[in-house]
Amino acid sequence: MKKGLEFIFSRMVLVGLLVLIQAIILMGAIWKLSEYFVYFYGLFAVISLLVVLYIVNKRDNPSYKLAWTIPILLFPVFGGLLYLLFGLQTTTKRFKKMLSDIFTKTQPLLKQDDAIIDELQRLNKDAANQSNYLINNAGYPVYKNTTVEYLTPGEMKFERLKEELQKAERYIFLEYFIIQEGIMWDSILEILVEKAEQGVDVRLLYDDMGCLNTLPYQYDKKLRKLGIQCKVFNPFVPALLKMHNNRDHRKIVVIDGHTAFTGGINLADEYINAINRFGHWKDASIMLKGEAVWSFTIMFLQMWGFNSKTEDDYEKFKPHVHHQTTFESDGFVQPYGDSPMDKEIVGELVYINMIIKAKEYVYINTPYLIVDNEMVTVLTLAAKSGVDVRIITPFQPDKWYVHTITRAYYPELIEAGVKIYEYTPGFIHSKTFVSDDEMAVVGTINLDYRSLYLHFECGVWMYKNKACLEVKEDFLQTLQVCKQITLEDTKNVHWVVRATRSVLRLFAPLM
């Protein structure tokens, strides 16, 4: 009873009701106008037609265009106006300009060591091309003098994170999509408070939408009273605004400039299997030590500067400032970020490039498989060309409709030779790519439209790094508890389910 009342009066439910009321009022107003058929229907139809012409000629993803065009044509009275109100609405100019100014100002701090890229060029032209793409289009350099430790499942990351936080002497930066009070966060918070009392500069940035149902309202004020500097990214207001789509989905920890964590693991108990929500939660993260941590430091300070409206002396946070000795080197390491504020879909193009360049295999872990035509094309082309393409998705969904769309992609991929597996113990949340024992990516970027087009994301591309083989070995071990999906499995489904999948897939870009 108590839990039910808490849910009913939770911030998420209250905000949802306010948004729903706005939507009902808007639809009612449009419907009322439509009663004056002679006067308004023709006008609405013309508006919808012009909107469709506008959408068709935009430089958007074709799937996104189709997802809007069909409902507009089916419902000309509502469709065109709804697109003008929500589909056309972009992030505010002020929001975009502030971020752009910060990124432009900090870009000179991310300088590429030419000797490193020259060495990579001599070793492997394909790897150098991948790295050059990130340097030239995302602005993030490739490093050596860095070691990477692959951490899976979440319990392992949790223990290593606590160990490293205890070692902090100067500063701790944390940036997370989801934080929830419980065993994981409470134990980390205890360390953060202790470090803040010791004079360590502790800063936390969390996404308001991600924490809408996991943290109390104005939780940031509580943390500031505990000595932790805290900011909330893109605070959610109960209004029908498209800018709410742009969330900070990154998971970043930086400690004293020389140690960093990233990956799929948020700070909530299901990520370490302290509670059971969707069966066993399988996730992956990595820890970096060395010069490549600088890119994560810049990523955090960019977002911190945007949210705090303050400027830091970036130089005092560099890796060698608080670590005088030489860092051990293990292959090539290139952290990178992806922003929805530019027209470059960095996360997707890194994945596509890895698939295209693979010669022997590509192994992929992803919780969601909701991809555009370009990704479907490269996956099927690689499989048809003889590359061993394998993808692991969850068996137990966290969102039924997302899982339904994921399964809608199975038939055409399997027909082309892509091998699909579902993680039978529960839910796999890892976002990893590995190919040919040489290249790997671990990060926050899902294979869905939100991650690839709408969210702030991050990842780490690696070449000739021991973590690449660790990602591969983990994938192969995970296969042992997975069920391979056959083409017969995809056909042996009730027609209602198949119809639902088809409809949901059509509107996937809008979800």
**Average of the residue pLDDT scores:** 88
The helix content, as a percent range, equals: 40-55%
Tally of individual helices: 20
Assigned CATH class of the largest domain: Alpha Beta
Distance between the termini: 32 Å
Strands of the widest sheet, in order across it, are 9-16-15-14-10-11-12-17
* Large-scale geometry: globular
| Biggest sheet statistics | 8 strands, mixed
Produce the secondary structure layout:
Layout: H1 2-8, H2 11-34, H3 37-56, H4 62-74, H5 79-87, H6 93-106, H7 114-123, H8 125-138, E1 146-151, H9 154-167, E2 171-176, H10 183-197, E3 201-207, H11 219-225, E4 229-233, E5 252-255, E6 259-263, E7 280-282, E8 285-290, H12 293-308, E9 332-338, H13 346-357, E10 361-365, H14 373-384, E11 388-394, H15 400-408, H16 410-415, E12 419-423, E13 426-428, E14 432-435, E15 439-443, H17 449-454, E16 457-463, H18 466-479, E17 482-485, H19 487-491, H20 495-506
Parallel strand pairs: 2-3, 3-4, 7-13, 10-11, 11-12
Antiparallel strand pairs: 1-8, 2-5, 5-6, 6-8, 9-16, 10-14, 12-17, 14-15, 15-16
Would you write up a description of this structure?
It is a single chain. The chain has 511 residues and is of the alpha/beta class. The chain folds into three domains: 2-87, no CATH class; 93-338, Endonuclease Chain A (Endonuclease, Chain A); 346-510, Endonuclease Chain A (Endonuclease, Chain A, 2-Layer Sandwich), CATH 3.30.870.10. Helix content is 47%, strand content 17%. The protein contains 20 helices and 17 strands. The chain has helices spanning 2-8, 11-34, 37-56, 62-74, 79-87, 93-106, 114-123, 125-138, 154-167, 183-197, 219-225, 293-308, 346-357, 373-384, 400-408, 410-415, 449-454, 466-479, 487-491, 495-506; strands at 146-151, 171-176, 201-207, 229-233, 252-255, 259-263, 280-282, 285-290, 332-338, 361-365, 388-394, 419-423, 426-428, 432-435, 439-443, 457-463, 482-485. The strands form three sheets. Strands 9-16-15-14-10-11-12-17 form an eight-stranded mixed β-sheet, sandwiched between helices. Strands 1-8-6-5-2-3-4 form a seven-stranded mixed β-sheet, sandwiched between helices. Strands 7-13 form a two-stranded parallel sheet. α10 links the parallel β2 (171-176) and β3 (201-207). α4 (62-74) runs antiparallel to α5 (79-87). The chain is globular, with a radius of gyration of 23 Å. The mean pLDDT is 88.
